[in-house]
Structure formats: C-alpha cells, structure tokens
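Per your request, structure below.
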C-alpha cells in the first residue's frame, strides 16, 4: 500500500468521523431537516431522470463519448443527449449501442442495414475515425 493511498484513506476516515460527530451532536429537528433536504434532492434527481427516459423513449438518454473513434464528429468527453423515436436507423445515422458482452456504450455511424425475414434488422457500423467497420467486434452468434 502506497503512502499516498494511506493518506487518502485516513483523510476519508477523518471526514467520516467528523461528519458522524456533527450528526450525533445535532438536535432531532435539525437532523430531520437535513434528512428531508437530502431526500428532496435525491427524489428530484430520480424524477428528472425518469422523465427524460419517458420523453426520449431511451433507456439511457445521456451518454458520454468514451473514445476518439467518431472524431471529428464527436470528441472524447462530449455529452450526447439521445432519443429513440425512429424505429429503423438509416445508413448515415449515428447510433449508440451496447454489446452483449460489454456495458460500455459505442457511438458509431450506420454504414449498412440488412432486413431479416422476421422484419428485424442488422446494422453494420463504423467509427468515422476508424479504418475498418465494426464487424470484428460483433462476434459470432
């Protein structure tokens, strides 16, 4: 264990001890006020997030770009606000998807679509800054 991580852990422990002392020293009314305030903040955040999910028809309406594969369209760290209204993406659309094996969102452009017999479809995507398409990362089903 490094000295730096030990100091960081000690700092957190001192903060928690001081915080518990402050809470223990409060009268019940002040403690109730703080508890309600924290509950209102958390409840508001949950309500806003749920409203965004409903309005955008998207399970994750906000995504951060994690790589440079879509430069110059999007750069690492860009924040994207998503919608999911168009049922079938078209060639040229930018889509966000997750692989079954990885929960990290991938932001890439559709370069090809293929309709299956049951009216489902396959998409072939590629990052604007990548040399090859994404066929290699899909794996075999």
């Amino acid at each position: 264990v490094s000295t730096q991580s030990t100091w960081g852990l000690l700092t957190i422990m001192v903060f928690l001890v001081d915080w518990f002392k402050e809470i223990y020293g409060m009268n019940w009314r002040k403690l109730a006020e703080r508890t309600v305030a924290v509950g209102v903040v958390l409840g508001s955040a949950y309500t806003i997030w749920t409203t965004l999910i409903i309005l955008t028809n998207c399970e994750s309406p906000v995504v951060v770009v994690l790589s440079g594969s879509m430069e110059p369209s999007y750069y690492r760290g860009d924040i994207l606000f998503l919608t999911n209204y168009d049922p079938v993406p078209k060639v040229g659309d930018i889509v966000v998807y997750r692989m079954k094996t990885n929960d990290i969102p991938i932001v890439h452009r559709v370069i090809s679509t293929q309709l299956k017999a049951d009216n489902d479809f396959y998409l072939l995507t590629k990052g604007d800054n990548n040399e090859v398409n994404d066929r290699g990362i899909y794996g075999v089903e």
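Helices lie at 3-25, 28-56, 135-138.

Regards,
D.
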